[in-house]
Amino acid sequence: MLRGYLRRLQRKAKPKTKNSIYLKHKEQARAVIISSVAYWAKFCEVEPKRVAIRDQKSRWGSCSAHGNLNFSYKLLFLPACLRDYIVVHELCHLKELNHGSRFWQLVETQIPDYKDRVIELRKLEVVTRMLPTQIPKYTIEHTCSYCKSVPSVVSSAVTHSAIMSPSYEKGILV
Prior knowledge:
Elements: H1 2-13, H2 20-44, E1 50-54, E2 61-63, E3 68-72, H3 80-92, H4 101-110, H5 114-128, H6 135-139, H7 145-149, H8 160-164
Parallel strand pairs: 1-3
Antiparallel strand pairs: 2-3
Helix pairs in contact: 2-3, 3-4
């Protein structure tokens, strides 16, 4: 018991440093996600109070009871179909703050194939463990009719090879 307590103290004592990949892509993610939120909010007939971009470890997004939306910057690396599903999912929480049948009806109204997207997202989570260096490797072969019809909003510089390059950490994209 004492050992566990000491470990918790050590964890708390460590200064938290910001993830360099997060810092590098936060503003680009903000632009992409906010444009997606603005687009889908019209269809969902909702308006979030605030949209925040965070370095979340285990969530793609969340919604507060106050109408605030939080998204992981890692959405930037997802295919458009999965990114839009997550945005719609969180926007629907502004009307229904639970995962009841009415909530899923709202999601289905906007994204009829949402179940397929959920399956794809879960597969991606298992394979990549939501690590930003792994997501592009998984999604590089992704092809669906939705993503083919939507122009890419992510810069070609944000690719797996760019993230994995030794010069990336120094802020130099190859």
